[in-house]
Every structure is written in structure tokens, then in C-alpha cells.
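User: Can you recover a sequence for this backbone? Please restate the input before giving your answer.

Assistant: Of course. Working from this structure:
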């Protein structure tokens, strides 16, 4: 019976179905909470209602290049513990299309803009639900500084800073402050303990200190880092205890990130094995060393893009990404010598099947991991990127298809190493786009895995074009939007 089942549905389909079934647990859990969406100035605010009527509100803020989806697990845990939980996207992040002020190093610049946004949300909540409510603030990474500064509003009950760093902390401000770091965030752990020692010189980690006016604690969560600390059950338990909410321990089966990772893994594996009945592509094999030299030389020459001064768009950085990767694609094409022999012929039905797979994966990532969409400024960014990024992906994919696995890894890594060099050489020109490096790596860990297996079946050309479209989408949808 089981053999018949496999024959009917085929293994890739079984993997995809199992992955979707895993995501059903997440969807069902989400639907058990009641939430409302409100519009306020620069923010779309989602308020997840407490499991029972409560005048407690906890505003939860995400970090740089993140989105409200990353903080959803904490929000649900807090709602289960008896507080209404509020989520939103900062300006220039996720689905928020407004532009950040391009003054990241000035407290009166980008930081103040985000503090003002959070202060407006605080004001909105008080106006909407009355002055007899109680508001606490939770912020991760970049937002740890924002929530601390926004707590200058004396009505704020408590502040929780996760992966914290802020120069706004003093001996007596904020008056009620919990600092949580991941075990592997040594610098941030040291900073957090130092901030508690401004209040109590003999302070130690994981110990709370208080007098009649001030309450402070610096905690760390075992076996976690900058991102994993958000999802750790111990993190929300400490937050819930600190906010004096009901005692709530998240059951293992309600850890949404676990089901999301399981589901996405099976879906990616299943998608990578589709089209297995097609003939393998025949391609002229280049010498590994020659392919490596081509991309290395193209990358080195493309570093000259840092000297190109062009500002046509009203948003920051996307032209520079387009020029850099476009030049690598162009020079790789020129140095290949046989580029004129490339046949740009695509079987549209097979190609659209791959496009559909990638599109579904993008939808699921947007739904369960990050609220990233294309609209307004991000559409402009995508249009700017799509042609040069596609050119880059086309010729890199061709070289990768004719190279050994380890040379393929180097071919994939060289361009992003070059971009990292640009970040160092031209920090003022490229600095705010440092998230491009992380996006590139994560993209090819997931979509590149599918592309690798599909390339063997349907050809490097179809995979290269698909990577060009979706890598452009990834850059345009996830990099923060700054004004020029």
C-alpha cells in the first residue's frame, strides 16, 4: 500500500504535502488568537488580544532589517499570559513603505524618527483604549535602543530590551528595565551587565535588583544568539515574569518557528526534486580554474563600481547593488569568450513551473517568517535591480553548471565577498546596504538549493533567469528603505 502511495504521488509531492501539513499547525495556532488591524499615521498596527479581557498592553518592536513577523511568537506568548500584544513594522521595514531618514549615526536623525513613530503608537493606544491602561515596551536589537528612548513617556510601565545596546540608559533611566541577551552575544551581554551596574555596582547576570524607584536585571538565554534568542521559550518566560503577567510556559508543540522550519525544509527538498523525469542538461565543461579566474577577475574589476556616482532614484543604495552585480555579469560574459554561442531558448512551461515553485516559497516566507512585499518604493527598487541581477545570475549559473561542487561554492561566494569589500572601502556609499550580504547568503542557502537540483534537470538558463527575478525580489523587499 505504501509503495502504491509513493508511486501515485511521487516522493517530491509527498515531501511538499508533509511540509504544508506542518505549516497547518502554525496556521491553526494563529487562528486561535483574535487580532485587529488599525491604521495610524506611519504605521499599520496589529493588536493581538489577550486570552481574557485585560488593560495591559505590550508593544513589541523588531530589529534592523526585520519585520513584525519575527516577533510574532513573543506576541502570542504574551497574549497567552494576559496582556494584549501589539505588532508593527518600523518605517522602511517590511510592508511599511515610508522612507527612513538617511542619518543613521545621529540620534536626532534615523533614531529619533523611529522613536517618534513608536511614541505616536503609544499615544494612539492611550487614545483608543483610555488612560487607565498600562503599556510596556519590548524591543529587539536596534529596537532595544528605540524602546528605551521612547520610555521617556512617564506612563510606560516597563521596558524589555532583547539583544540590547543603548547609550540612552543612565543610573535612573529607565526606571524599570530588563535586558536579555543570547549566550553567544558576549559584547551585548557585557554591555547589558554594565548598564545594570550603573544602578548596582556588584550586579551579576540573571539576578534582579530593585529599590523603591528603580528595577533592573540583565539576563542571558543559554545556547542562543542574536536571532535565536527571540524564539527561545525561556526568553518569553523571563519577559512574562518581569512584566508580572500570568505564569505561562509555551508547550513544545506551540513553538511556531519549529513547525515553520520543519515545514519549509520539507517543501524546499520536495521542490528541488521536481522535474526528475526530464533529461539532464548537456553543457560544455570548463576547467575549474578557468571558471574561478573569470569570476575573480570580473569581481575585482566590478569593485570600480564604488567610484561611479549616480543618484537617479529617490531611495538609497539599490542603484549601487544593480551596478555592482550587473558589472560582474557583464564582465563574466565578456571574459567567457564563447558567450556568443549561448542559446537563449526557454521551454516556457517548464520555466513557469519553476517560477511557480519559487513564487509559492516566497509567499510562505512572507506569511510565516517576514512581512516583505513589493509596493511603492520597493517596486522601483525591483525594476532597477531585475535586469542587471538577472544578467549576473545567468552567467554565474552557466559557470557553476560546468564546475565541481567546491568551485561552485567559491563562484557563488566571490561576488558577495567583493560586495563586502565595497562596504569596507566605501562605508558612506554602501554602509546601509550591509544587509545585502545576509540576504544573498540566505537566498542561496534556500533558493540556491532548489536551483542546484533543478539546474541538472532543466538547464542553467531557466534557473539563472529565475534566480535573477527572485534574488532581485529578495533585495528589493527586504533591504530597509532609506531616503537618498
Amino acid at each position: 500500500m505504501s509503495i502504491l502511495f509513493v508511486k501515485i504521488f511521487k516522493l517530491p509531492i509527498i515531501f511538499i504535502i508533509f511540509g504544508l501539513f506542518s505549516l497547518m499547525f502554525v496556521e491553526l495556532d494563529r487562528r486561535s488568537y483574535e487580532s485587529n488591524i488599525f491604521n495610524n499615521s506611519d504605521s499599520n498596527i496589529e493588536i493581538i488580544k489577550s486570552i481574557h479581557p485585560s488593560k495591559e498592553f505590550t508593544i513589541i518592536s523588531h530589529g534592523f532589517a526585520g519585520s513584525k513577523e519575527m516577533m510574532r511568537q513573543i506576541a502570542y506568548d504574551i497574549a497567552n499570559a494576559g496582556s494584549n500584544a501589539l505588532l508593527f513594522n518600523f518605517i522602511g521595514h517590511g510592508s511599511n513603505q515610508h522612507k527612513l531618514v538617511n542619518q543613521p549615526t545621529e540620534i536626532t536623525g534615523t533614531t529619533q524618527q523611529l522613536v517618534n513613530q513608536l511614541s505616536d503608537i503609544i499615544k494612539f493606544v492611550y487614545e483608543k483604549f483610555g488612560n487607565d491602561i498600562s503599556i510596556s515596551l519590548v524591543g529587539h536589537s536596534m529596537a532595544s535602543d528605540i524602546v528605551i528612548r521612547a520610555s521617556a513617556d512617564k506612563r510606560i510601565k516597563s521596558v524589555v530590551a532583547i539583544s540590547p545596546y543603548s547609550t540612552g540608559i543612565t543610573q535612573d533611566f529607565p526606571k524599570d528595565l530588563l535586558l536579555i541577551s543570547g549566550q553567544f552575544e558576549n559584547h551585548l551581554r557585557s554591555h547589558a551587565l554594565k548598564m545594570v551596574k550603573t544602578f548596582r555596582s556588584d550586579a551579576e547576570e540573571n539576578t534582579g535588583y530593585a529599590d523603591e524607584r528603580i528595577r533592573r536585571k540583565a539576563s542571558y538565554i543559554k545556547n542562543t544568539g542574536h536571532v535565536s534568542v527571540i524564539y527561545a521559550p525561556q526568553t518569553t518566560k523571563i519577559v512574562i515574569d518581569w512584566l508580572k503577567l500570568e505564569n505561562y510556559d509555551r508547550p513544545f508543540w506551540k513553538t511556531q518557528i519549529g513547525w515553520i522550519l520543519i515545514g519549509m525544509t520539507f517543501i524546499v527538498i520536495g521542490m528541488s526534486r521536481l522535474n526528475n523525469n526530464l533529461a539532464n542538461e548537456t553543457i560544455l565543461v570548463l576547467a575549474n580554474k578557468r571558471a574561478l579566474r573569470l569570476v575573480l577577475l570580473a569581481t575585482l574589476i566590478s569593485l570600480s563600481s564604488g567610484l561611479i556616482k549616480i543618484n537617479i532614484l529617490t531611495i538609497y543604495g539599490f542603484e549601487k547593488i544593480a551596478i555592482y552585480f550587473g558589472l560582474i555579469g557583464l564582465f563574466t560574459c565578456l571574459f567567457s569568450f564563447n558567450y556568443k554561442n549561448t542559446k537563449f531558448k526557454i521551454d516556457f512551461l517548464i520555466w513557469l513551473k519553476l517560477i511557480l515553485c519559487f513564487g509559492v516559497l516566497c509567499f510562505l516566507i512572507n506569511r510565516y517568517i517576514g512581512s516583505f512585499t513589493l509596493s511603492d518604493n520597493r517596486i522601483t527598487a525591483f525594476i532597477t535591480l531585475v535586469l542587471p541581477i538577472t544578467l549576473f545570475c545567468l552567467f554565474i549559473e552557466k559557470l557553476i553548471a560546468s564546475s565541481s561542487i567546491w568551485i561552485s561554492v567559491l563562484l557563488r561566494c566571490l561576488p558577495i565577498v567583493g560586495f563586502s569589500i565595497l562596504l569596507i572601502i566605501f562605508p558612506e556609499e554602501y554602509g546601509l546596504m550591509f544587509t545585502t550580504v545576509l540576504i544573498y547568503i540566505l537566498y542561496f542557502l534556500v533558493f540556491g538549493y532548489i536551483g542546484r537540483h533543478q539546474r541538472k534537470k532543466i538547464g542553467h538558463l531557466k534557473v539563472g533567469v529565475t534566480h535573477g527575478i527572485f534574488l532581485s525580489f529578495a533585495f528589493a523587499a527586504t533591504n530597509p528603505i532609506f531616503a537618498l
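That completes the design. Confidence is low (pLDDT under 50) at residues 4-8.
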